[in-house]
Design goal:
two-stranded antiparallel ribbon; mainly alpha
C-alpha cells in the first residue's frame, strides 16, 4: 500500500484540530468572508447607482465603493493567502483558533464601521478600518523574521505599502479630496505582489502538473530575468502611482509590458490548457502586461479609471479567485481539479475584466457596461462561495489511499 498525495494536500503543519473548523487555518474565514463581502458591497454599490439607495453617504458612496474593493475585499483574500503560505515558507506554526478569530474580527469591524460611518462618524470609522493592515504587517513581519526567510520580506514590503496607501486614502477621503493617488498606490502594491508571488507559484504549479504526465517541457525557473522584470515593473508602477500622465511613465510601462509578456511566455502556460485550475493562473497573469500596456496608453489619453480596472479586476481579482479555488481545494484534501462551476466563475470574471474598462471608452454604453460588469462580478464570487463554502466550513477530507 502506498499513500499518494499532492504536496499541497498534506495536513498543514500545526493546524488547529480543536474549536471551530472555520478558524483552524487562515484561508478558511478570510476566503469565505471576502467572497461574501465582495457580493454584498458590489450589490450595495449597484443599488446606489440604479435605485439611489443611500450607502455610506457621510463618507461618500463613491469613495466607500473604491475603498471597500481595494482595502476591504482584497486584503481579506491576501490575508487568507499569507496566513496559509507563510507557515509553509518559514516552517513555523500557523495562526489559528482564538488569535485568528480576533484578527478576523478586526477585519469585520472595519467593514461594519465603514458601512455605518454615518452613525460612528467618518473619523472613527477610518480609525477602526486602519487597524487591520498594520496588524497583518506586524504578524507577517514577525513570522518572516523569526523564520529567517529574508527573501520573503518583499511580501512584507507590499503589506507596508498597502497600509500607507489605506491611511492616505482615509485622510484624503475625510477631507473631501479625490484619493486617486492612494488608489493607484494600493493597486500598484497588489500588482507588485502578483509579479513576485506569481513568479513563485506559476512555474512551480505548471511544472508539477506537467511532471504528472512524464513531460519535460518545463517552465524556465526563476533567474535574473525574472528579478529584472520585477524591478522594471516596480519602477513603472511607482511612476504610474505618482505621475500617471507622464510620457516617462508610458515609456517605462511599455518596457514592462514587453518584459512581462516574455516572462509569461517562459512559463509555457499554453501547455496547461487541459487543466483550467492551472491555466487560469497564467490567464490572470496575462492581465499584468495588459495592465502595463494600459498604463502606457494612459500616458497618451486612455482614461485612468479604465487603466486601474484592468489591473483591479484582471491582474488582481482574477488571480485572487484562481488562488482561492486552488488553495481551498488543496488544503481541504480535495483533488486539485476545477469543476464546471469553478471554470464558469473563471470565464465570467475574465469577461468582466475585459468589459469593465470599456465603460469609459464607450460612453454611450456606460450604464449597460457597468450593470453587466457588476452582475458578472457578483456571479463569479457567488459561484465560488456556493461551491467552496462547505469545504471552508467543514473538516478536511481524509487522504486517499490506493494499492500499488
Amino acid at each position: 500500500m502506498q499513500k499518494t498525495m499532492d504536496a499541497e494536500t498534506r495536513v498543514p503543519r500545526g493546524m488547529s484540530r480543536t474549536g471551530l473548523v472555520l478558524f483552524s487555518y487562515g484561508f478558511r474565514p478570510f476566503f469565505l468572508a471576502s467572497a461574501l463581502w465582495g457580493i454584498v458591497s458590489m450589490g450595495l454599490w449597484t443599488a446606489y447607482l440604479t435605485l439611489g439607495v443611500p450607502v455610506a453617504e457621510d463618507y461618500g458612496t463613491l469613495y466607500w465603493h473604491a475603498h471597500e474593493m481595494l482595502f476591504g475585499f482584497a486584503p481579506a483574500i491576501l490575508a487568507g493567502f499569507l496566513l496559509t503560505a507563510i507557515p509553509n515558507w518559514t516552517g513555523r506554526l500557523p495562526i489559528a483558533g482564538r488569535p485568528l478569530a480576533f484578527l478576523f474580527s478586526i477585519w469585520c469591524a472595519g467593514r461594519l464601521a465603514m458601512l455605518a460611518s454615518g452613525l460612528t462618524g467618518v473619523v472613527a470609522a477610518a480609525l477602526v478600518d486602519a487597524l487591520f493592515l498594520p496588524a497583518m504587517l506586524v504578524l507577517c513581519t514577525r513570522e518572516v523574521v523569526a523564520g529567517k526567510k529574508w527573501k520573503d520580506l518583499k511580501v512584507v514590503a507590499g503589506l507596508f505599502i498597502l497600509s500607507v496607501a489605506n491611511i492616505c486614502f482615509q485622510v484624503k477621503a475625510i477631507n473631501g479630496i479625490n484619493p486617486e493617488l492612494p488608489i493607484r498606490l494600493g493597486l500598484s502594491a497588489y500588482v507588485l505582489l502578483v509579479t513576485i508571488v506569481g513568479g513563485r507559484i506559476l512555474p512551480s504549479f505548471t511544472r508539477n502538473w506537467l511532471n504528472q504526465f512524464g513531460r519535460t517541457d518545463f517552465p524556465v525557473p526563476y533567474n535574473r530575468y525574472d528579478a529584472a522584470t520585477i524591478i522594471v515593473g516596480a519602477v513603472a508602477l511607482g511612476s504610474w502611482a505618482v505621475w500617471p500622465d507622464a510620457i516617462a511613465t508610458g515609456i517605462v510601462a511599455a518596457v514592462a509590458t514587453v518584459m512581462n509578456v516574455i516572462r509569461l511566455y517562459r512559463w509555457r502556460g499554453w501547455t496547461t490548457w487541459a487543466e483550467p485550475i492551472v491555466f487560469v493562473l497564467h490567464a490572470a497573469f496575462a492581465f499584468v502586461p495588459l495592465g502595463f500596456a494600459a498604463v502606457a496608453l494612459g500616458a497618451t489619453g486612455l482614461p485612468q479609471i479604465a487603466v486601474l480596472h484592468v489591473f483591479a479586476i484582471g491582474a488582481i481579482s482574477l488571480m485572487m479567485l484562481a488562488v482561492m479555488t486552488r488553495a481551498t481545494r488543496g488544503h481541504t484534501g480535495r483533488k486539485l481539479k476545477s469543476s464546471r462551476m469553478t471554470n464558469a466563475s473563471y470565464v465570467v470574471l475574465a469577461f468582466v475584466a475585459l468589459l469593465r474598462p470599456l465603460a469609459e471608452i464607450a460612453p454611450s454604453f456606460t450604464a449597460q457596461i457597468l450593470m453587466t460588469s457588476a452582475i458578472g462580478w457578483m456571479a463569479a464570487l457567488a459561484m465560488f462561495a456556493f461551491e467552496h463554502a462547505p469545504m471552508l466550513c467543514t473538516g478536511r477530507k481524509p487522504l486517499t489511499v490506493r494499492g500499488k
